[in-house]
Amino acid sequence: MLQAIKIVLITEILILATILYSFELFINLQVGVLSSFFIMLGSLYAYKKMVTKQLDSGNFEEQRDPLDRMEDPYELYTPEESSEQKEFSAAEIKQIVQEEKKKIKTFNFSSMKKGSKGSVSLFRLIPYIFLILGFIALRNNEMLDIAYYLGALFIGIVIGYISAKNLFALKIP
Fold first, then answer.
1. pLDDT in tens, 21-68
2. pTM, whole model, 2 decimals?
3. Is 161 exposed, middle or buried (0-12, 13-18, 19+ CB in 10 A)?
4. What phi-psi label fits residue 154: left (phi over 0), alpha (psi between -120 and 50 degrees) or beta?
5. Closest to 157 measured CA to CA, from 37, 27, 45, 30
6. Which residues contact 163 (CB under 8 A, 6 or more apart)?
7. What is the separation of C-alpha 51 from the centre of its chain, rounded to a whole number of angstroms?
8. Greatest CA separation for the chain
9. Which of 16, 26, 19, 41 minimizes the C-alpha distance to 121?
10. Closest CA to 50 of 170, 167, 161
């Protein structure tokens, strides 16, 4: 935690030093860095809470490797436990198809609520509002210099990631 605070303080001191050169440079850097810094912190904190909640509830299942899912989405080429092929009757095939249809998730309010928990978190929304309002304020006051602003966004992302990594490290027993 101390390392994260040091990084943020050093960055803020360097940004504050740019006021001696130009106020426009300073304000572009300050708004850009703070926006992306808070977005990274909020996003990673919300994600950590979501993962911790899933781990605590035991509501997770082991998934296949993403590359394996792309190459073989229907598990047609996965090796079977036994080497012999089993023949199914028509009734067994119909039963298997019905069971698989039951497993298909339909789109409803509860699935939408479950999927949007991480993206609708206030920890994520408030920094995005700050980003939008900061950009609009710079643009309306004719102080926006897009080169400095985009560079500041990148710096904020890096600092936010390093800080969040130190602050919100997930500890799995």
1. 989 989 999 999 999 999 998 888 888 887 777 777 776 666 666 777
2. 0.65
3. middle
4. alpha
5. 37
6. 4, 7, 8, 37, 40, 41
7. 11
8. 82
9. 41
10. 170
